[in-house]
Amino acid sequence: IVVLVSLQNREPPPIDDDELMGPPKPEIYRFEIDSVVKVELDGPAREPFSIQFENDVWTSSAGPGIAIAPNRAYDLQATFGSLYAERIIEGEGADLSVYGLDPPQVTGVATLADGSTVELRLGNRAPSGNWYIMKPGDPRVYAVWINHGNNLYYTIDDLRQDPLPVPAVDGIEY
Question: Which of 33, 93, 102, 105 could disulfide-link 81, Cβ–Cβ 3.0 to 4.6 Å?
Fold first, then answer.
């Protein structure tokens, strides 16, 4: 009983937070998400389009009157503004066609509030389910989380805000 009581009352060993979190993830882009005011998406097998933030509303180049869902526009802002890789796949000299990056499946360009732009090139899905991605001027191929690839694959129909129909209460009969 004395041994059991003494084991229960001892302090646990300290936990090293760095050891629990593992090595830091490679940073691709990191800036204020709200500074993204325009996103253009293009690719060889898709219709190019852009969305931009004007007068507190997201609008589309695909046509007037297309309401853009703010939460989906935020997904794109977050993909550009806070992008970390799961891991680095390849360095300089890699055969980019293996990763679907020659040519890229989707090219995304985000315009920031200060007028500067950042670009992402999306390739194929990795066997793990992640996506291959590159940025211009960086010879490395990264694997990023599934949601970032899915966000860059958005079409205008994916971004369209789907308003719920309003039932005609007066016409309801029991």
Answer: 33
